[in-house]
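Researcher: Here's the sequence for the chain we discussed earlier.
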Amino acid sequence: MPVVRDLRVLLRLRNFRRLLVIRLLSQGADGVYQIALAAYVVFSPEKQTSPAAIASAMAVLLLPYSLVGPFAGVLLDRWRRRQVFLHGNLLRALLAAATAVLMVSHVADWLFYASALCVTAVNRFVLSGLSAALPRVVDEDRLVLANSLSPTAGTLAATAGGGLAFAVRLVASDSDAAVVLLGATLYVCAALAALTMAPDLLGPDRHPTRPSLGMAVISTARELAEAIRHLAAPRRREAAWALMSMTAMRFCYGALLVLVLMLCRYALASDPAEGLGLLGLALGVSGAGFFAAAVVTPWTAGRFGPGRWIAVCATSAAVLEPVLGLAFTTVPMLLAAFILGLITQGAKIATDTIVQSSVDDAFRGRIFSVYDVLFNIAFVGAAAVAALMLPPDGRSATLVITVALVYAVVAGAMTRFERVERLQRHRATPCSD
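Model: Thanks. This is the structure I predict for it:
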């Protein structure tokens, strides 16, 4: 098969392999670190976890991606990328070790969150740098394949890192600090892997006419505003509606994730260790739903159209989420996790397709940056709303019904939009004699 042959050629490229090793170690460490944070914030026996604490943890993990992400490229175009991987991973190792010390010292929560915030903020530069460096180690003909392989391998590495964190936590007597130190060790390994590459190999090229840093930041902000105006044009209404719908559905998924965290911690498990295992099972089942969406969506979106498929997903969630969620028991919760994983990812794939096909190529990257910001802010906002509505054990019929109503509004809005668009296209089509 040509793909297999190209894959073998890619893996023969020494510098591609080295860059891939940096990615695997970095994202594996991310998976370890994130599971350690979740276990410490939610499942530590000595902590009485609240929805507010979960919301704070989500803000720490996600807001740096939203606030730093669109501007990371400005600095990455000035710093040697190999040095970003070296110094960025060393800095994360140092900060992760500081996080471990804070965990065992029982200091004020804000110090712990500040340390974790710094780790995840640096992560944005490393991940963006890995993507930007890829064309320097792969020829143009195989760049698409490399872009498919590298992020997928990184996601698998993060998942494996999460599994390793669970294993270490069992061996180390539920020590979250030991898990964080494992993550710090992997960050150091990623930094050492960067030393196998020449400092200037990964770029960027030096441009004497490059604008100052301040002007570049201002220009980036201006270009993001131009992308929003581009999206607001009448002929790109479907992309705008799809983005708004996906943002609302991401909000719903985030609120339900907080609910599941509280159920696993207090209502459905007899102790924190059992609750952490149940959470891992729920996340795995939801991941299976994401995979199912990747299989099902190409056919369903092709049959219904991407916009109507989003409406179908939202309608299904509006009906099934309260039916399964109001039971507040394990089996219905796991079924709901699978269905919501399928529905959320299915709608996202359809939204990506609409945006890619509707907007001009010159604006596509900036609009996806806006998309990323909306995606993460909706998730953090959902956690904040859930923190206000959830009781300590997570059993909140009010939140379940509220989320179902949001899904219903999305379904109704997308259905109406698609109907209006179809009528307008029909009227615009010349009638034959």
